Amino acid sequence: MDSLDRKIIKLTQSGLPLVPEPYQWLARQLDISAEQLMRRLEAMKNAGIIRRIAAVPNHYKLDYRFNGMSVWDIEDAHVDRLGEHLGQLDFVSHCYQRPRHLPEWPYNFFAMVHSTEQAGVERQIAEIAALLGDYNRGHEILYSTRILKKTGLRIR
Amino acid sequence: MALTALEKQLLNDFQHDFPLERRPYRAIAERLGVSEQAVLEAMQALHNQNLVHRIGSIIQVNKIGKSMLAAMAVPTSALTEVAEIINQFQEVNHNYERENSLNLWFVLIGENQSHLDAVVADIEQQTGFPVLQFPLLKDYFIDLGFELDLSDG
Fold first, then answer.
1. Whether B139 and A53 lie within 8 Å, measured CB to CB
2. Which domains does chain B carry?
3. Over 90: is that where the pLDDT of B82 sits?
4. In chain A, which residue's Cα lies nearest the Cα of B82?
5. String of DSSP letters for A49-70
6. Strand runs (DSSP E) across B10-131, as ranges?
7. Which of B22, B44, B96 lies nearest to residue A146, judging by beta carbons?
8. Does residue B55 carry a pLDDT above 90?
């Protein structure tokens, strides 16, 4: 990745304009051709730097306003296998293995769930608990009560 | 919320792959059997209603830098003050209050681990409360297009 790639990321991250030739429009800001810009974007997609180029919906506005960060204490020997399984549930948007901080934090698995209603979140948590069975040694849902800061990615 | 059929299609079908070609809106229009102008207008309508944040590139942060989830247990009386200190760091991307004894959860993004370590030390020193670090050990999800910006710390 060179400085041009970084500039391209910064520019495309903040959004493509709603004009017939958006890549041309962006390329002009960088003083390169649309073809050059698209080739760079393609290369960064192939390298996994850009996960995708996409319309980013506002899930909150689209009624998926109930979300919870669920945290689980799963036996280490089984967390990989079960994690793969949970990652395939359509209501789990993100799930990760993270370190415990004993004794106050026994949880090693985080799964973000989303629903259009509170009861939906609770059903989803019950579904995850059922899937984990005895491998689940405890869990909690951390609802967010306030967004204190939310910004896009900044790249220097 | 009343969405037109075209707006729904645009929301559902183009969260994953927006065409990487000279006239992407025309490519979408051809696939949906409508005009390029109709697609542009529908996108504009979605944007105006704040139903679509933007059309843009979604970055895998850990390929170009390092991100990490962190949490703190802060007494309610000090919460606003501590949050203000944390939010001043440009490395702090999200900051949520959550219902837990660990009640502040934020994502840090930096150039590398030592950069993040320095920010954590700085936050601890300025707030007087310890920061628990929750680095990503492994992710398992399939990217279905749910966008949480960079909550994948």
1. no
2. 5-48 (no CATH), 61-134 (3.30.70.3460)
3. yes
4. A148
5. SEEEEEEEE-TTTTT--EEEEE
6. 52-59, 66-72, 92-98, 104-110
7. B96
8. no
The confidence score (pLDDT) of residue A65 equals 73
Listed by number, the residues of chain A in 30-89 with a beta carbon closer than 8 Å to a beta carbon of chain B are: 34, 38, 41-42, 44-45, 47-59, 61-63, 69, 80, 83-84, 86-88
Q: Cβ contact (<8 Å) for B15 and A55?
A: yes
Q: Do A16 and B55 touch (CB under 8 A)?
A: yes
Nearest to A130 by CA among A99, A85, A96: A85
CB pairs under 8 A between A and B: 241
Q: What is the pLDDT of residues A28-66, one digit of tens each?
A: 999 999 999 999 999 999 998 898 898 877 776 666 777
pLDDT digits (tens, 9 = 90+) for B3-19: 888 988 888 777 778 99
Residue B134: count of CB within 10 angstroms of its CB: 24
Q: What are the structural domains of chain A?
A: 3-46 (1.10.10), 66-143 (3.30.70.920)
